[in-house]
Amino acid sequence: MAGADTSIVASSEDTFSTLAARLLSSSVEPRDAHRIAVDFVASALGTHVTLFYGVSEDGRTLAVSAHHGAPEALLARLASLPLESASLIARVARTRKAAEVDAAAKDAPFDARVAAEIGCGQRALAAPLIAGERLLGLLVCFTPTAESGRDRTLPMLSAFASLIGATLGSARPADENALRRSQERLARAQRIAHIGSWEWEIGTNEVFWSDECFRLFGLPPSAEKKTYEDFLSFVHPDDRAEVDEVVRGALSGDASSYSTDHRILAVGDRERIMHVDCDVIRDDAGRALRMWGTVQDVTEQRRAEKALQKSEALFRQVLETLPVGVWVSDEHGNVILMNPAGQTIWNETRFVGPERFDEFKAWWVETGNEVKADEWALSRAVKKGETALNELIEIQAFDGSRKIVLNSAAPVRDPKGRIIGGFVINQDVTAQRRAEMALQKSEALFRKVLETLPVGVWVSDEHGNLVLINPAGQRIWGGVRFVGPEEFDEYKGWWVDTGKEVKSDEWALSRAVKKGETALNELVEIQTFDGIRKFVLNSAAPVRDPNGRFLGAFAINDDVTEQRRLEAERERLVHALSTERRWLRTVIDRSPIGIVLCKLDKEPEFLMNHKAEELMGEAMPTDVLGLLRQRLHLPDGSPVPDQDLSLNRALRGEVVTGRELLVRTPHEPDVPVLNNASPIRNEEGEIVGAVVTYEDITPLKELERLRQEWTSVVAHDLRQPVTTIMTLAGALARSGADATARSRGERIVGSAARLSRMIGDLLDGSRIETHRLELLRAPTDIPALLGRVIEASDNRERVTISIHGEIPALFVDAQRIEQVAENLLSNAVKYGFPGTPIELLAERRGDEVVVAVRNQGPGIPPEDMRTLFERFQRGRAKGSMIKGLGLGLYIVRGLVEAHGGRVEAHSVPGEITMFSLSLPIDTSVEGIHEDTSKPSASTT
């Protein structure tokens, strides 16, 4: 205890003032006074452990008569001490001066070290209680180490000892008699506890024994000192050498203590078991000076421990084998043990307390009400001490199954009647409850099953006489013979593995009856009563009642004649399948189309035919998937992303048709192929593999190239006459001719202009398809470009522009991007509701600039979205046909993708349609031509 002072006493005033009043009362007996004294000191000083040592009537022994907070281990070793021992307690008693020691000191007495080892504190304090010249007892405290220079615990303990000593010393004669009676009771308690103490001065070979030591060895108390050899003489002859070796080892080694049991032959050759605790006191050099210890008769205790261990083992074995569930709880109701049967009943073990009993779901069978947590028999047994017998409940086990259980519980009490726990017994009577109904149906069901079973069933009584054969059994044998074991030779059979005849006592049913054997699937060839040969799997087993008594036996005949025929047929089919697989492999290998097969097993397995190996430029590759990743490219020459490989897509469940790819092999021209892929599924619909085909379309691509070149040449050659027509028709329209001539000239100009745009679209489409589109890139101000597009539009009054945030300059072909914007704006006008607003939006999103055109109109049907950007696809404006080739959006996509961007369309039919194009930002382009930093700025 650190720093016990008057503030501590003051803080404890309410606690120990009452104790002090009782202690000073003239009516208190010495025995009670001792107990009050230790409580008073513990309350006043806040010590961990406080003991009151009384002095025996002969003045030779100090013994604990009261304590506060002392553990059993400490009392067992320090309950009784000789006055002549080298302990701190005995030294204070002899000198009658208060003292304290630190257990960590080299010369610390053994009682201080014992207390420290047990965990009572590193510091030991003792003060004598003196009345006149008479020593009444000692107050002993064990506390943590105090802070140096600040602790006043010892002076205060001395003051309390003086006060208590004066109080006890002023007792009336009647009190003296009470003290004497208390001392006698103390001595008797020591004898009952069978604890004696001794001390051995190593240099003198003399051992001082306490009175109880003499008694333990069957000797009368004597002041005569004993020797070490005297002690050995009481040790059982078979143990003397071992005991002497242990003691000598403790003295010569580094050990400071030892604790063990010895067999002792007390006077009269009474064999007892003594537990000896020893402590060795050493000097600074480590030499043993003295040995001190205690002796306790633990004969009955050891016998009880063995009996307890045996009882516990028997108890657990009984629990494990009991067919009923047993649950055990502590005094608080916490479940601490459940046997296997209990776990089986509930399908789980849960060690919980009463507050969580609601995890166990159950209902009273009689009322159907749920069993609440505090209604469980175990909870009532622990909390109220109730005993419950055979309460019928329906439980829901932790796997969801319902069961009917008889629930019983009772409290467990100690000899004083205090509840120290409880137990509950669960008996699963689900089967019993259902047995009555099941039994009624059992015979009818049994016979019905026998009649419908496809296997033959034969039943015999306990003597082996056949009493029942089902229809299948009669069909298998072509008849029936109700005979006994001695007539089983009427049934003819041969062991298939040896060809030997089955003798009457070798039949499985005969062995089941006579020997209690169980036979499974013994293959025999039988000859039926109508002369037919069949193969039968024969099984048999004895039938016993729940008490193990033999009731009869049954046999099962399974006609496997057809099965053996089918096995032969299966072998034939396997051979045919093998032939068919070779044929299929030949077809695949000779196919003019490259084929790759993938089979999913633990690891994917691949098969390539000769054409696929030829296309990929490698025969019998070890890493097929890696080869495909290396060889396959998109039409623009970029590698196919791994997740976009047609094989991987097929393994994900996709079907790929008509996909154009390039096969690129080293030192060879690229080969265009038409790629198809499909997953392979089993009967359950699970994907078990994939098939991928690659068809060389080089001739088709050459034809397409020629067609595109022809289209380009035709469009180019048409442009010159169209220009001439437009020039002459324009001059006619501007001339002074009559109105009819001018009108016809204007119509010619308009038609020629549309023809010119169509020619331009054909040329752009041809350049896009042949990848000959040239871009004149330059830093371009996108907001300014969009403004020019709006100004050039005939419907600019309907168009608004919204610029969100700062738009950096893009390195693009401004004329081509302007063409894209004009095309999208023209579509919005043509396909939108007349007069409705059209909105152009531009904003930066990460590393892209997004430009969108949004209008209100009938929208795009979902079925048209997939082909929206294909060639020659045209939509319809509401109420009129839209003129054109259907190349506008195809060219838009081609121009945007040529800039490294993408174009998308979103439409809600009848509401909004929006086309958006995303263009990448080139970080090498710096500067913006116009300030567009104001968000959501709108211009018209």
Automatic annotation (TrEMBL):
Limits of the Histidine kinase domain: 713-923
Catalytic activity: ATP + protein L-histidine = ADP + protein N-phospho-L-histidine
Annotated ranges, domain PAC: 258-310, 389-441, 520-572, 657-709
E.C. numbers: 2.7.13.3
PAS domain location: 207-254, 311-341, 442-478
InterPro entries: GAF, GAF-like_dom_sf, HATPase_C_sf, HATPase_dom, His_kinase_dom, HisK_dim/P_dom, HisK_dim/P_sf, PAC
Keyword vocabulary terms for this entry: Kinase, Phosphoprotein, Transferase
Protein name: histidine kinase
Lineage: Bacteria, Pseudomonadati, Myxococcota, Polyangia, Polyangiales
